[in-house]
Design brief:
By secondary structure, this protein is mainly alpha-helical. The chain is 37% helix and 9% strand. It starts with a helix and ends in a 10-residue tail after the last helix.
Amino acid sequence: MSDLPTDQVVVADVIRVNRTDLVTEGELAELTALLRRLNVRAQILPIERGRAAGTEILGTGLFDFEEAPRAPGWMRELTLEEHTPATDQ
C-alpha cells in the first residue's frame, strides 16, 4: 500500500469500501480487518455500486479536533520542513 492511501485511512472518520458486490465475503472481511488495524475508531461502510446515504458520510459528528493531533502521521507532517502535496505522492 502506498503512503497516501494509508495516511488517509489512518486519519479517516468514515471509510467507504466501494464495489463490495465484486468481492467475496472473505475478501471483504480481510480488507475490513486490515482497515480496522490501521484505524480502530473509523466507521467502515461497505458500499455497493457507489450508493451511500449522504448522512452516512457528511455531518457525522465523528471528527474530534482534540483527537486529530494524536493520529499517527499528524506530528510527522507538521514537523516536515517541506510538505509534499498529495497530488505529488
